[in-house]
Design a protein that fits this description.
- This protein is α+β, with helices and mostly antiparallel strands.
- 35% of the residues lie in helices and 32% in strands.
- The protein has eleven helices and 21 strands.
- The protein has a four-stranded antiparallel β-sheet with strand order 16-17-15-18, covered by helices on one side. Strands 19-20-21 form a three-stranded antiparallel β-sheet. The protein has a two-stranded antiparallel sheet with strand order 1-2.
- Strand 8 (153-156) and strand 9 form a beta hairpin.
- Helix 4 (85-106) packs across helix 5.
- It is elongated, with a radius of gyration of 28 Å.
């Protein structure tokens, strides 16, 4: 159902064992005039958390104030926040993104931008809260589903605008989005800016063991719809991403070079298979395995090192044996080996380069060196 700063804050609070204790930490940031109050509510019969953010006792949307605040004043507020320095840096970077988006939308320099005071302070609160909570959670990887932006129009201080509003659209550049079938603004500029800063991947939920999950409820109500951000915290299984592409116009040397580069860049495995393509052409399928967090990098590398114009992605689960390395002394010198164990098996494999080096230096068959290694490894 989209994303807004307060919904993200509420969802993140619910991932902690004691949300109220974390809410106290949010108030301890001492954002001028800002107060955080967390409450449990229900939406469509589902319980979740809602964070009510007030500025000088007023909530955004219920204010009679029309005063504005400059970006310089906002930066001054950010500088005085009582937060760890990494959090302050993140908050400043997010606000720089918002300022750049507003500047682009209004066609004026950032220094000339003045934002509605209540809305600006409310956004500072949401950004600072989400940033501090993510700092406390310290996740290794953040994955989001594609973003629902809504459709139709939204009323702003600049009149009625189509959804997504110009600043939101700028912040969502490069992020997969969809309109959905709910009318209205489903993604706010603050929500878009937070996703842009913290999300590593936009994809479906991976295979994971969930430790905590929570619903951050919004203020809008929709018929037969849960207006919430659903957050889940857990451990990823040892999943891998398989990326594949088809080519029919690369030389064998170019394919070998591409695979070598992919392996040097950290692919878990890479290889090729010959097969028949459309129009009866012989072709090559290039496959590689990589970790989920490396997916975007290897997509770029595949396009860079091959002539493909498209690729496929498959999320795979895998079972692997534990691996270790060692050295065994033979009659002719040391030989490195790799040992794989698990699932009732144990395999030891000598390094071919060491076997070949000994065979050449001693002028003996490779199989003789291998047999000696196998005898010593028993």
């Amino acid at each position: 159902m989209g994303i807004a700063g307060d919904m993200m804050t509420s969802a993140l609070l619910g991932l902690f064992d004691d949300p109220q204790q974390q809410a106290d930490k949010l108030n301890a940031m001492e954002i001028p005039g800002i107060s955080f109050q967390v409450e449990t509510k229900k939406c469509q019969g589902i319980a979740g958390l809602h964070t009510n953010v007030t500025y000088l006792g007023e909530s955004e949307g219920h204010s009679s104030s029309h005063s504005h605040i400059s970006m310089d004043k906002i930066r001054s507020v950010l500088q005085d926040l009582k937060v760890p320095e990494p959090v302050r840096n993140d908050i400043s970077a997010i606000y720089d993104d918002i300022a750049a988006a507003e500047s682009k939308a209004h066609g004026c320099p950032v220094e000339e931008i003045h934002l509605h005071e209540l809305g600006a302070m409310d956004a500072i609160a949401d950004i600072a809260a989400a940033s501090l909570l993510l700092h406390e959670l310290d996740p290794e990887l953040v994955i989001s589903s594609p973003v629902c932006v809504g459709h139709g129009t939204v009323n702003t201080a600049h009149g009625t605008l189509s959804v997504p509003a110009p600043a939101t659209a700028s912040l969502l550049e490069g992020i997969p989005c969809f309109a959905g079938d709910a009318a209205g603004e489903m993604c706010t500029p603050t929500g878009a800016a937070l996703l842009r800063r913290y999300v590593h991947q936009f994809a479906s939920m991976p295979v994971m063991t969930i430790d905590h999950h929570s619903y951050g409820l919004g203020t809008k109500e929709f018929e037969n719809r849960l207006n919430a951000v659903h957050a889940m915290l857990g451990e990823l299984h040892p999943d891998v991403i398989e990326l594949s592409c088809n080519v029919d116009d690369m030389t064998p040397e170019s394919i070998a070079y591409a695979l070598d580069q992919l392996m040097q860049e950290g692919a878990l495995d890479a290889g090729w298979t010959s097969f028949g393509m459309k129009k009866g052409r012989p072709g090559i399928r290039i496959d590689l395995l990589c970790r989920p967090e490396d997916r975007d990098r290897f997509v770029d590398l595949l396009f860079h090192h091959t002539t493909t114009i498209g690729l496929r992605e498959t999320v795979c689960t895998r079972e692997i044996l534990s691996r270790s390395e060692g050295i065994i002394e033979t009659t002719w010198g040391p030989v490195r080996y790799k040992c794989s164990e698990g699932h009732g098996v144990r395999r030891i494999k000598a390094e071919y380069d060491d076997l070949a080096s000994i065979a050449k230096s001693q002028n003996i068959p490779l199989d003789v060196v291998r047999q000696e290694f196998e005898e010593q490894s028993k």
